[in-house]
């Protein structure tokens, strides 16, 4: 059955409620104990049937398009090649990405695009890839790509690519403040290694945070938010400490750097508190987003 000529898949940004980082493994990656949450900031990826292959991008007006690599080595090119190779198919179609997830922001925007590409091209090419195979291909593309497929709230282990859902009964209100200047993920990990030469082989499980999610208690969750990469991010970007203090004094329960930064996220008790916090932060920051989690992973939103 032909599904149609064009198909749009929406994939969410992630934030880290907990990011525990261990000492680097032999392959250079760091063992992680991560709790991810998918939040309502999305990239939409549209694929259209065609014999040749192309990828182009438009970005939200506050974002700099030049930061998105479009030189044939975009993560979407790699996703397409991997999926096609898995099935012995030729890569074909034209892809358009409509980005709202900050680029190089620590929110897994590239991973969201890769996950969306896998879902979209699987349908366009009628490849019927099993969920297990799709997750395995996602893991080859990047540590955060499997989570972008799964969404919700999930525990990530291994190098972040082994994901399993956790019980989450809350609706969480977040204020997100991206930064106009991105941070390099490898650089943050290298700085983490310098700061913490005695990091453990396996970072411990964040039990109080998992209990807060199960209880749906924002105050307990705020107290339990933690990111082992935050000291490295703050060292390289001291302005982020001021931003976190400003968000907390504007009313948020707690602010933290998310992932490898520089985006900072603020947990709020309610929609009103989130809007008030955002309004105050807008005095000094051009882009301040209000959103909720958890939301679904990469999913089709339209066929034409
Ligand atoms: O897996 P991904 O492509 O997202 O990783 C980007 C970079 O981040 C890696 O090349 C590595 O430098 C760093 N990284 C790491 N340990 C992880 C995940 C990422 O050191 N668990």
Automatic annotation (TrEMBL):
This is 4-diphosphocytidyl-2-C-methyl-D-erythritol kinase. Its EC number is 2.7.1.148. Pathway: Isoprenoid biosynthesis; isopentenyl diphosphate biosynthesis via DXP pathway; isopentenyl diphosphate from 1-deoxy-D-xylulose 5-phosphate: step 3/6. The active site is at 14, 144. GO terms for molecular function: kinase activity. Belongs to the GHMP kinase family. IspE subfamily. Keywords: ATP-binding, Isoprene biosynthesis, Kinase, Nucleotide-binding, Transferase. It holds the Pfam family GHMP_kinases_N.
């Amino acid at each position: 059955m032909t599904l149609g000529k064009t198909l749009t898949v929406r994939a969410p940004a992630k934030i880290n409620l907990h990011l525990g980082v261990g000492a680097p493994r032999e392959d250079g990656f760091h063992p992680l104990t991560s709790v991810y949450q998918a939040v309502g900031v999305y990239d939409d990826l549209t694929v259209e049937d065609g014999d040749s292959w192309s990828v182009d991008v438009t970005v939200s007006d506050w974002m700099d398009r030049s930061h998105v690599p479009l030189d044939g080595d975009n993560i979407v090119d790699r996703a397409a090649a991997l999926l096609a190779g898995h099935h012995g198919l030729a890569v074909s179609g034209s892809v358009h990405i409509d980005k709202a997830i900050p680029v190089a922001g620590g929110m897994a925007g590239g991973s969201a695009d890769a996950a969306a590409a896998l879902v979209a091209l699987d349908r366009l090419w009628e490849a019927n890839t099993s969920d297990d195979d799709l997750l395995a291909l996602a893991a080859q593309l990047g540590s955060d790509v499997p989570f972008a497929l799964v969404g919700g709230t999930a525990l990530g282990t291994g190098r972040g690519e082994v994901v399993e859902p956790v019980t989450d009964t809350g609706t969480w209100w977040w204020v997100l403040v991206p930064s106009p200047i991105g941070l390099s993920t490898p650089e943050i990990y290298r700085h983490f290694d310098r700061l913490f030469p005695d990091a453990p082989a396996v970072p411990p499980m964040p039990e109080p945070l998992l209990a807060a999610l199960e209880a749906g208690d924002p105050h307990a969750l705020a107290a339990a938010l933690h990111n082992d990469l935050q000291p490295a991010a703050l060292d390289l970007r001291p302005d982020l400490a001021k931003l976190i203090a400003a968000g907390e004094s504007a009313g948020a329960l707690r602010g933290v750097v998310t992932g490898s930064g520089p985006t900072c996220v603020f947990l709020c008790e309610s929609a009103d508190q989130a809007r008030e916090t955002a309004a105050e932060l807008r005095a000094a920051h051009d882009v301040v987003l209000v959103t909720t989690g958890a939301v679904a992973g990469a999913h089709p939103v339209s066929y034409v």
